Recover the amino acids of this structure.
C-alpha cells in the first residue's frame, strides 16, 4: 500500500467517523510544505487554503500526519463543528487586519495588531504579521486545546499571549490511526506518546482511535476487552477447554485478585509443584484474549522465567549494552512496552518461579513504581535508545494500568522466602489442593486412548496420595498425568506393563521422599499402599533403615 492510498483511506475513515456531509470542508495537510509539526506549546496542524471558507459549511476537518522512527506514521484528523462560526469569524478578522495594515502606512503594524513579542514579529523589521488573504492559513492547537489561526507569519512557539488572536475554535473530536497496525513493542513509543499528548491538549475523551488498515497481526476485538467486562462463567469455561482443572474455585479467586483494583494487578500463585499454577495464569490470559488453543499465538502474553542469580532489576527491566550501544529488552520490559502501546488491551506477564531469586532484590523497582505511580527509570539518556528488539526505549516509562503480573512460587530448599513487603503488595492464592480423581476423569475425556492406563495407574496414585496427605505432602497433576502417559507408552512400545507401575513409583513419586523421625508413619503408610510392588518396598525399607541408623532419610543420595 503506497502513501497516497494510506492518506486517502484515512481521510475517508475520518469523514465517516465524524459523519461528514457534502457541506463539510476537508483540508488534507499531508504534503511536505503544508504538513503538521510539533512546536513549543502546541501543534501546528499545517497550512491550509481557507480563503473561501463560509458559514454555510457545517464542519471543518483538518487531516494530518506525523512520522516517528523507526517506521511509524500517526494519522490524525481534527474536527471543528460546534465552533465553526468562531473559526470563520477569525478568518474574516485576519483578512481585515491584513488589509488595514497594508493600507495604513502611517501607523506601524504593531500598533494595529499588538506588540512584536505578542505577534512573533521580528523586532524592528516592521514586517506585517497578517495577510489580506487566507490562502495560507496556518492552523494550530494551543495548550488550551483550541484551534488558533494565522495567515502570514508562522509562529515558532505558542507560548505567548493568545488573547489578541481570538476568537479561537473549540475542537469537537480527533480521530487517530497508526500505521503500520502491527501488535508489537516495535510500535514506536514516540507515536503513542504523541497520541497521549493530543489527549492531554484537548481531553482524552475527544480522541478516538480508528482501525483503518487491519492486518493479520492486528488485535482481534476479543483482545481489546478488559477482564472485568467478561462474564466469569465464560472465562471458567474457556480455561477448562484449554486443559485446566481447578475444582476449588481457583479461577474465580484468581479473577477477583487480578481485577479488584483498577491500577494494580499483581497475584502470586503458590502451592505444590505441578498443580497448574503457571498453566492457570497462561490459560486465563488466553481465555480473556479469546485464544482457543493452548499453543495458540497470543501477542499480549509474556512468560519471564526468573533466574536464581538475579540480584537487581536488570533481568526484568533491561540495561544499556555499552558494546552495541543498544538497550537490552528482556520479556518483562517488552510486556511493559506492548502494554504502553496498546492501552485498551490487557497484557499479561508471568514471572515463573518467582522466588528462585530474592524477590525484593530484583522486583523492588517495579513494585515501587506500581505503588507510587512514578515512572520506571531505565537509563539516563536524554534521547530514546535503540532497543535490542528494534523498539526505541525512552529514559523512563510508567507501569501501565493494563499490565497484569502473575508470579508463581514453590517452597522448597531451592527457593527463597518471600518477604512481607512483597506479600503485602500482592494477593497470594494457595493452589495445593489436588483433585486427583476429577483430573484423571477429565484427562481420559480429552484423550480416550489413555483409558486403560488410567484404570491401571489411577488406584495406585490415589492410594499413594492418601498416604501422603496427612503429612502435608503430595504430588500435583503434572506427576499424575506423566505416570498415566508413561504407562500407556510402555503398553505399546516398551514390552508390556508388568513392572511399569513399580518402576514409576520409584522413579517418579517416591524419589522426592525425605524427612526425619516424625515422617516414620509416612514410610509405613506407603509400605501398605504399595504392598504389591517389590521395587517400591525395597526403597521404602532402605529409607526406614536409614531413619533407624541416621535419624533421617532421603531417597536421592
Amino acid at each position: 500500500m503506497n502513501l497516497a492510498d494510506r492518506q486517502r483511506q484515512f481521510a475517508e475513515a475520518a469523514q465517516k467517523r465524524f459523519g461528514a456531509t457534502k457541506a463539510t470542508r476537508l483540508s488534507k495537510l499531508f504534503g511536505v510544505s503544508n504538513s503538521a509539526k510539533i512546536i513549543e506549546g502546541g501543534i501546528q496542524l499545517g497550512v491550509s487554503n481557507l480563503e473561501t471558507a463560509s458559514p454555510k459549511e457545517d464542519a471543518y476537518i483538518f487531516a494530518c500526519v506525523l512520522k516517528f522512527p523507526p517506521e511509524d506514521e500517526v494519522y490524525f484528523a481534527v474536527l471543528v463543528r460546534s465552533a465553526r462560526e468562531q473559526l470563520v469569524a477569525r478568518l474574516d478578522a485576519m483578512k481585515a487586519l491584513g488589509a488595514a495594515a497594508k493600507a495604513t502606512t502611517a501607523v506601524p503594524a504593531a500598533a494595529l495588531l499588538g506588540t512584536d513579542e505578542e505577534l512573533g514579529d521580528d523586532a524592528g523589521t516592521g514586517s506585517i504579521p497578517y495577510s489580506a488573504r487566507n490562502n495560507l492559513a496556518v492552523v494550530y492547537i494551543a495548550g488550551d486545546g483550541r484551534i488558533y489561526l494565522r495567515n502570514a507569519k508562522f509562529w515558532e512557539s505558542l507560548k505567548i499571549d493568545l488573547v489578541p488572536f481570538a476568537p479561537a475554535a473549540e475542537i469537537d473530536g480527533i480521530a487517530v490511526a497508526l500505521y503500520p497496525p502491527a501488535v508489537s513493542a516495535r510500535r514506536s513509543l514516540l507515536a503513542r506518546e504523541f497520541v497521549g499528548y493530543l489527549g492531554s491538549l484537548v481531553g482524552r475523551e475527544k480522541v478516538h482511535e480508528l482501525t483503518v488498515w487491519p492486518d493479520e497481526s492486528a488485535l482481534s476485538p476479543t483482545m481489546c476487552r478488559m477482564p472485568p467486562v467478561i462474564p466469569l462463567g465464560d472465562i471458567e469455561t474457556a480455561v477448562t477447554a484449554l486443559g485446566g482443572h481447578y475444582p476449588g474455585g481457583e479461577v474465580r479467586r484468581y479473577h477477583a485478585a487480578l481485577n479488584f483494583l483498577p491500577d494494580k494487578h499483581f497475584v502470586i500463585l503458590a502451592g505444590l509443584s505441578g498443580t497448574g499454577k503457571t498453566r492457570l495464569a497462561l490459560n486465563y490470559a488466553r481465555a480473556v484474549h479469546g485464544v482457543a488453543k493452548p499453543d495458540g499465538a497470543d501477542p499480549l502474553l509474556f512468560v519471564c522465567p526468573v533466574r536464581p542469580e538475579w540480584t537487581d532489576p536488570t533481568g526484568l527491566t533491561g540495561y544499556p549494552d555499552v558494546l552495541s550501544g543498544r538497550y537490552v529488552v528482556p520479556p518483562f520490559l517488552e510486556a511493559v512496552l506492548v502494554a504502553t502501546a496498546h492501552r485498551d488491551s490487557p497484557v499479561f506477564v508471568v514471572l515463573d518461579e518467582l522466588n528462585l531469586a530474592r524477590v525484593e532484590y530484583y522486583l523492588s523497582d517495579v513494585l515501587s513504581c506500581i505503588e507510587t505511580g512514578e515512572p520506571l527509570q531505565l537509563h539516563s539518556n536524554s534521547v530514546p535508545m535503540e532497543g535490542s528488539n528494534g523498539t526505541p526505549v525512552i529514559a523512563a516509562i510508567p507501569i501501565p494500568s493494563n499490565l497484569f503480573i502473575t508470579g508463581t512460587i514453590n517452597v522448597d530448599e531451592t527457593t527463597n522466602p518471600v518477604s512481607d513487603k512483597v506479600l503485602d503488595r500482592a494477593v497470594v492464592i494457595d493452589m495445593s489442593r489436588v483433585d486427583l480423581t476429577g483430573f484423571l476423569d477429565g484427562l481420559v475425556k480429552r484423550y480416550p486412548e489413555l483409558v486403560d492406563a488410567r484404570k491401571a495407574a489411577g488406584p495406585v496414585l490415589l492410594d499413594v496420595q492418601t498416604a501422603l496427605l496427612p503429612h502435608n505432602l503430595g504430588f500435583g497433576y503434572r506427576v499424575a498425568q506423566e505416570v498415566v502417559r508413561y504407562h500407556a507408552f510402555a503398553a505399546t512400545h516398551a514390552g508390556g506393563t508388568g513392572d511399569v507401575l513399580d518402576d514409576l513409583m520409584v522413579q517418579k513419586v517416591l524419589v522426592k521422599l525425605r524427612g526425619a523421625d516424625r515422617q516414620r508413619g509416612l514410610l509405613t503408610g506407603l509400605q501398605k499402599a504399595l504392598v504389591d510392588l517389590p521395587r517400591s518396598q525395597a526403597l521404602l525399607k532402605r529409607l526406614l533403615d536409614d531413619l533407624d541408623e541416621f535419624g533421617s532419610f532421603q531417597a536421592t543420595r
In short: The chain has 19 helices and 23 strands. Confidence is low (pLDDT under 50) at residues 109-127. The CA atoms of residues 230 and 332 lie 25 Å apart. The longest helix spans residues 84-103.
